[in-house]
Write a structure and sequence with these properties.
Helix content is about 30%, strand content about 15%. The chain is an alpha+beta fold and about 290 residues long.
């Protein structure tokens, strides 16, 4: 059974018209982690739902919730207004330990710019010897979906083109992350909100990041910093993955030697999409 994002939810979102119904159909929910404020929750709702006008939010006691810096509390919340659930597509994304989608030019540029994990601040102290153990250059927008990138003209956000690999491999689409944090980022366990001073927002409890922290200031001051639009895209994807409906499936990432990876993928959710992603990743690895 694949990991279930909704199993740990302690925030539940409903239409106010369902408040008195014995059986309520949730619009979505959230596994509340440290550092999430009411204001952050309002921003998430603005992505999860498409509003035709202003809306209001009340808790179980009927108290109106304001978009402020108070910590969000567990419980049920009711949305009043004219809205629909956003049907923007979520792109299946996984990180298996043998996947290698990063091209050398991309890695070199991200390493040269960052030199440390831009989320934890940990410096790659052995980099001067050429050792980058425990650090990985991560694509903000995944390389496996280059067709989606081109179809939606995401290249318009790139101003620094790489020597090879096309705009999707620009340093502006990359972050240097500690290996464990890279896995959390790719699986949307946390994201970065560029519209809240680059606040790091966890979507799962227990992730190894500083709740309420901010993206590395030195990175943000760099002329080849990541594009805000790409960080915003990742944040939106994290909201859809973790909050919409029952949440998107999580995936097993660790396939030991000799295990039936193909069989496990075929028996799991979103099998065709995941198979395409994994196949592309391995072809990219062998083409380097």
């Amino acid at each position: 059974m694949p990991p279930n994002r909704s199993r740990g939810r302690n925030v539940h979102i409903y239409n106010v018209s369902d408040r008195c119904k014995p059986e309520k159909e949730p619009l979505g929910g959230l596994e509340l982690a440290n550092g999430v404020t009411n204001s952050n929750f309002f921003s998430m709702l603005g992505i999860l739902l498409v509003f035709e006008s202003t809306f209001s939010l009340t808790n179980e006691q009927g108290i109106t919730i304001e978009a402020n810096s108070d910590p969000l509390q567990p419980g049920s919340y009711y949305v009043a207004g004219s809205f629909s659930v956003n049907n923007e597509p979520w792109l299946t994304r996984t990180l298996s330990l043998s996947t290698g989608t990063r091209v050398p030019e991309f890695c070199d540029a991200v390493r040269a710019r960052d030199g440390r994990c831009v989320v934890s601040g940990q410096v790659a102290e052995n980099a001067y010897k050429g050792f980058w153990w425990g650090f990985e250059a991560s694509h903000i927008f995944p390389l496996a979906y280059e067709e989606h990138w081109m179809r939606n003209d995401f290249s318009r956000w790139i101003t620094i083109l790489p020597a090879n690999g096309g705009p999707i491999n620009s340093v502006q689409n990359g972050l240097l992350l500690r290996s464990d944090i890279h896995g959390l980022f790719d699986n949307y366990a946390f994201s970065i909100d560029p519209d809240d001073e680059y606040k790091i927002i966890p979507f799962q409890r227990g992730v190894s990041i500083m709740p309420g922290g901010r993206l590395d200031r030195q990175l943000l001051d760099s002329p080849d910093r990541p594009a805000d639009q790409l960080l915003r895209w990742h944040f939106r994807q994290a909201v859809f993955a973790n909050m919409r409906g029952a949440g998107e499936p999580g995936f097993e990432n660790d396939f030991p030697p000799g295990s039936d990876m193909v069989g496990q993928i075929r028996e799991g959710p979103k099998a065709a999409e995941r198979m395409e992603f994994e196949l592309f990743s391995r072809l990219a690895l062998h083409s380097q």
